[in-house]
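Help needed: design a sequence for this.
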Protein backbone atom coordinates (compact mmCIF):
# COMPACT_ATOMS: atom_id res chain seq x y z
CA UNK A 1 0.00 0.00 0.00
CA UNK A 2 2.80 2.36 0.90
CA UNK A 3 4.63 1.49 -2.33
CA UNK A 4 1.49 2.24 -4.36
CA UNK A 5 1.18 5.61 -2.65
CA UNK A 6 4.82 6.32 -3.41
CA UNK A 7 4.31 5.47 -7.08
CA UNK A 8 1.22 7.68 -7.24
CA UNK A 9 3.05 10.60 -5.65
CA UNK A 10 5.93 10.22 -8.10
CA UNK A 11 3.52 10.18 -11.02
CA UNK A 12 1.94 13.41 -9.80
CA UNK A 13 5.39 14.93 -9.30
CA UNK A 14 6.45 13.82 -12.78
CA UNK A 15 3.30 15.26 -14.36
CA UNK A 16 3.82 18.58 -12.59
CA UNK A 17 7.42 18.78 -13.86
CA UNK A 18 6.31 17.89 -17.37
CA UNK A 19 3.67 20.63 -17.27
CA UNK A 20 6.33 23.18 -16.34
CA UNK A 21 8.58 21.89 -19.12
CA UNK A 22 5.83 22.27 -21.71
CA UNK A 23 5.01 25.79 -20.52
CA UNK A 24 8.65 26.77 -20.99
CA UNK A 25 9.20 24.99 -24.30
CA UNK A 26 6.18 25.83 -26.42
CA UNK A 27 3.53 28.52 -26.24
CA UNK A 28 -0.17 27.81 -26.74
CA UNK A 29 -0.93 27.33 -30.46
CA UNK A 30 -2.47 30.33 -32.18
CA UNK A 31 -1.48 32.72 -29.39
CA UNK A 32 -0.01 36.11 -30.28
CA UNK A 33 3.64 36.61 -29.31
CA UNK A 34 2.83 39.47 -26.94
CA UNK A 35 0.27 37.29 -25.13
CA UNK A 36 2.18 34.01 -25.07
CA UNK A 37 3.94 34.88 -21.83
CA UNK A 38 2.24 34.08 -18.52
CA UNK A 39 3.36 33.50 -14.91
CA UNK A 40 4.75 30.07 -14.12
CA UNK A 41 3.73 30.21 -10.47
CA UNK A 42 0.84 27.70 -10.90
CA UNK A 43 3.21 25.06 -12.31
CA UNK A 44 5.89 25.83 -9.73
CA UNK A 45 3.38 25.62 -6.87
CA UNK A 46 2.11 22.30 -8.23
CA UNK A 47 5.67 20.93 -8.17
CA UNK A 48 6.21 22.17 -4.61
CA UNK A 49 3.04 20.42 -3.45
CA UNK A 50 3.76 17.17 -5.30
CA UNK A 51 7.45 16.93 -4.37
CA UNK A 52 8.65 15.01 -1.31
CA UNK A 53 8.51 17.27 1.71
CA UNK A 54 11.69 19.25 2.41
CA UNK A 55 13.52 17.71 -0.55
CA UNK A 56 16.70 19.86 -0.70
CA UNK A 57 17.33 19.24 -4.40
CA UNK A 58 13.80 20.25 -5.39
CA UNK A 59 14.04 23.35 -3.22
CA UNK A 60 17.39 24.28 -4.80
CA UNK A 61 16.06 23.74 -8.32
CA UNK A 62 12.99 25.88 -7.67
CA UNK A 63 15.19 28.62 -6.22
CA UNK A 64 17.17 28.47 -9.46
CA UNK A 65 14.12 29.60 -11.44
CA UNK A 66 14.44 33.36 -12.06
CA UNK A 67 11.90 35.51 -10.27
CA UNK A 68 10.84 37.00 -13.60
CA UNK A 69 9.86 33.55 -14.82
CA UNK A 70 7.73 32.83 -11.78
CA UNK A 71 6.04 36.22 -11.49
CA UNK A 72 5.78 37.20 -15.15
CA UNK A 73 6.63 34.12 -17.19
CA UNK A 74 9.10 33.27 -19.95
CA UNK A 75 8.96 33.59 -23.69
CA UNK A 76 9.04 30.03 -25.12
CA UNK A 77 11.60 29.02 -27.71
CA UNK A 78 9.34 29.53 -30.71
CA UNK A 79 8.53 33.11 -29.63
CA UNK A 80 12.21 33.91 -29.01
CA UNK A 81 13.12 32.44 -32.38
CA UNK A 82 10.70 34.77 -34.18
CA UNK A 83 11.88 37.69 -32.10
CA UNK A 84 15.52 36.94 -32.92
CA UNK A 85 14.86 37.29 -36.65
CA UNK A 86 13.64 40.85 -36.12
CA UNK A 87 16.56 41.69 -33.82
CA UNK A 88 19.02 40.25 -36.33
CA UNK A 89 17.62 42.37 -39.15
CA UNK A 90 17.81 45.62 -37.16
CA UNK A 91 21.26 44.79 -35.75
CA UNK A 92 22.62 44.23 -39.26
CA UNK A 93 21.36 47.62 -40.36
CA UNK A 94 22.99 49.31 -37.36
CA UNK A 95 26.31 47.45 -37.53
CA UNK A 96 28.37 50.64 -37.98
CA UNK A 97 26.52 52.68 -35.35
CA UNK A 98 28.08 53.05 -31.87
CA UNK A 99 25.99 52.64 -28.73
CA UNK A 100 25.72 56.39 -28.12
CA UNK A 101 24.37 56.96 -31.64
CA UNK A 102 25.84 58.69 -34.69
CA UNK A 103 25.16 61.27 -37.34
CA UNK A 104 22.60 60.67 -40.07
CA UNK A 105 25.23 59.83 -42.75
CA UNK A 106 26.60 57.03 -40.54
CA UNK A 107 23.12 55.56 -40.18
CA UNK A 108 22.69 55.73 -43.94
CA UNK A 109 26.06 54.08 -44.64
CA UNK A 110 25.36 51.36 -42.08
CA UNK A 111 21.97 50.69 -43.64
CA UNK A 112 23.51 50.56 -47.11
CA UNK A 113 26.31 48.25 -46.02
CA UNK A 114 23.82 45.75 -44.59
CA UNK A 115 22.62 45.07 -48.13
CA UNK A 116 26.14 44.69 -49.51
CA UNK A 117 27.28 42.06 -47.00
CA UNK A 118 25.98 38.65 -48.02
CA UNK A 119 25.08 35.91 -45.60
CA UNK A 120 27.33 32.89 -46.07
CA UNK A 121 25.88 29.39 -46.23
CA UNK A 122 28.19 28.07 -43.50
CA UNK A 123 29.58 30.98 -41.49
CA UNK A 124 31.46 28.89 -38.94
CA UNK A 125 34.75 27.22 -39.79
CA UNK A 126 35.32 23.54 -39.10
CA UNK A 127 37.91 24.30 -36.42
CA UNK A 128 35.46 26.59 -34.63
CA UNK A 129 32.75 23.94 -34.74
CA UNK A 130 35.24 21.55 -33.16
CA UNK A 131 35.49 23.99 -30.24
CA UNK A 132 39.03 25.11 -30.98
CA UNK A 133 40.05 28.53 -29.58
CA UNK A 134 39.24 31.55 -31.74
CA UNK A 135 39.99 35.25 -31.54
CA UNK A 136 36.59 36.75 -30.75
CA UNK A 137 38.00 40.25 -31.27
CA UNK A 138 38.40 39.44 -34.95
CA UNK A 139 34.65 38.94 -35.36
CA UNK A 140 32.64 41.87 -36.63
CA UNK A 141 28.91 42.38 -36.16
CA UNK A 142 28.03 40.40 -39.27
CA UNK A 143 30.27 37.48 -38.25
CA UNK A 144 28.63 37.38 -34.82
CA UNK A 145 25.12 37.49 -36.24
CA UNK A 146 25.98 34.76 -38.76
CA UNK A 147 27.17 32.49 -35.99
CA UNK A 148 24.27 33.29 -33.71
CA UNK A 149 21.82 32.50 -36.50
CA UNK A 150 23.65 29.24 -37.24
CA UNK A 151 23.10 27.97 -33.70
CA UNK A 152 19.57 29.34 -33.49
CA UNK A 153 18.60 27.35 -36.59
CA UNK A 154 19.87 24.26 -34.76
CA UNK A 155 17.89 24.99 -31.62
CA UNK A 156 20.93 25.80 -29.46
CA UNK A 157 19.89 28.95 -27.61
CA UNK A 158 22.84 28.74 -25.25
CA UNK A 159 25.38 29.06 -28.06
CA UNK A 160 23.23 31.72 -29.73
CA UNK A 161 23.29 33.78 -26.55
CA UNK A 162 27.05 33.36 -26.20
CA UNK A 163 27.62 34.86 -29.62
CA UNK A 164 25.03 37.60 -29.21
CA UNK A 165 26.79 38.63 -26.02
CA UNK A 166 29.80 39.56 -28.18
CA UNK A 167 27.88 42.35 -29.92
CA UNK A 168 28.93 45.93 -29.33
CA UNK A 169 27.51 49.36 -30.03
CA UNK A 170 23.97 49.89 -31.29
CA UNK A 171 23.50 46.21 -32.27
CA UNK A 172 24.07 45.22 -28.64
CA UNK A 173 21.54 47.78 -27.46
CA UNK A 174 19.02 46.39 -29.94
CA UNK A 175 19.66 42.81 -28.80
CA UNK A 176 19.78 43.51 -25.04
CA UNK A 177 16.13 42.67 -24.33
CA UNK A 178 16.32 39.49 -26.42
CA UNK A 179 19.46 38.38 -24.58
CA UNK A 180 17.83 38.98 -21.21
CA UNK A 181 14.73 37.00 -22.15
CA UNK A 182 16.88 34.17 -23.49
CA UNK A 183 18.89 34.10 -20.26
CA UNK A 184 15.66 33.78 -18.27
CA UNK A 185 14.53 30.93 -20.53
CA UNK A 186 17.83 29.04 -20.24
CA UNK A 187 17.97 29.34 -16.46
CA UNK A 188 14.38 28.14 -16.20
CA UNK A 189 15.06 25.23 -18.55
CA UNK A 190 18.07 24.26 -16.45
CA UNK A 191 15.89 24.09 -13.35
CA UNK A 192 13.28 22.02 -15.23
CA UNK A 193 15.96 19.58 -16.42
CA UNK A 194 17.14 19.21 -12.83
CA UNK A 195 13.64 18.43 -11.60
CA UNK A 196 12.99 15.91 -14.37
CA UNK A 197 16.31 14.17 -13.77
CA UNK A 198 15.60 14.04 -10.05
CA UNK A 199 12.09 12.63 -10.32
CA UNK A 200 13.28 10.14 -12.94
CA UNK A 201 16.13 8.93 -10.76
CA UNK A 202 14.23 8.65 -7.49
CA UNK A 203 11.26 7.06 -9.25
CA UNK A 204 13.41 4.01 -10.03
CA UNK A 205 12.95 2.91 -6.43
CA UNK A 206 9.38 1.95 -7.30
CA UNK A 207 10.05 0.07 -10.54
CA UNK A 208 9.78 -3.52 -9.45
CA UNK A 209 13.06 -3.91 -7.62
CA UNK A 210 11.40 -6.10 -4.99
CA UNK A 211 12.36 -9.73 -5.36
CA UNK A 212 15.00 -9.05 -7.98
CA UNK A 213 18.49 -8.38 -6.57
CA UNK A 214 19.93 -7.69 -10.02
CA UNK A 215 17.17 -5.23 -10.90
CA UNK A 216 17.54 -3.58 -7.53
CA UNK A 217 21.28 -3.20 -8.10
CA UNK A 218 20.65 -1.76 -11.57
CA UNK A 219 18.14 0.68 -10.15
CA UNK A 220 20.55 1.72 -7.42
CA UNK A 221 23.21 2.34 -10.06
CA UNK A 222 20.83 4.40 -12.19
CA UNK A 223 19.70 6.32 -9.13
CA UNK A 224 23.31 7.13 -8.30
CA UNK A 225 23.94 8.29 -11.87
CA UNK A 226 20.79 10.39 -11.79
CA UNK A 227 21.84 11.93 -8.51
CA UNK A 228 25.23 12.84 -9.95
CA UNK A 229 23.45 14.38 -12.96
CA UNK A 230 21.24 16.47 -10.69
CA UNK A 231 24.26 17.61 -8.70
CA UNK A 232 26.06 18.61 -11.89
CA UNK A 233 23.07 20.63 -13.07
CA UNK A 234 22.77 22.36 -9.70
CA UNK A 235 26.47 23.24 -9.79
CA UNK A 236 25.88 24.76 -13.22
CA UNK A 237 23.00 26.82 -11.81
CA UNK A 238 25.27 28.07 -9.04
CA UNK A 239 27.98 28.95 -11.56
CA UNK A 240 25.47 30.93 -13.62
CA UNK A 241 24.56 33.18 -10.69
CA UNK A 242 27.63 35.47 -10.80
CA UNK A 243 27.42 35.61 -14.60
CA UNK A 244 23.72 36.46 -14.74
CA UNK A 245 24.23 40.21 -14.89
CA UNK A 246 27.13 40.01 -17.35
CA UNK A 247 25.07 38.11 -19.92
CA UNK A 248 22.89 41.04 -20.84
CA UNK A 249 24.75 44.20 -19.85
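Sure. Designed sequence:
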Amino acid sequence: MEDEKGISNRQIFWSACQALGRAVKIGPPGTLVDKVIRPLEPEINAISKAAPRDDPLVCAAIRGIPEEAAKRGVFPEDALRKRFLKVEDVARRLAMVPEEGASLPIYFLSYLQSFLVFRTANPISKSELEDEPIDVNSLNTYDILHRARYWLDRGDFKMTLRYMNLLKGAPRSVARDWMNETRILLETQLAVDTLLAHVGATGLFYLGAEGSPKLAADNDSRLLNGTFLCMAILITIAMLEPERDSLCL
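The CA atoms of residues 130 and 191 lie 28 Å apart.
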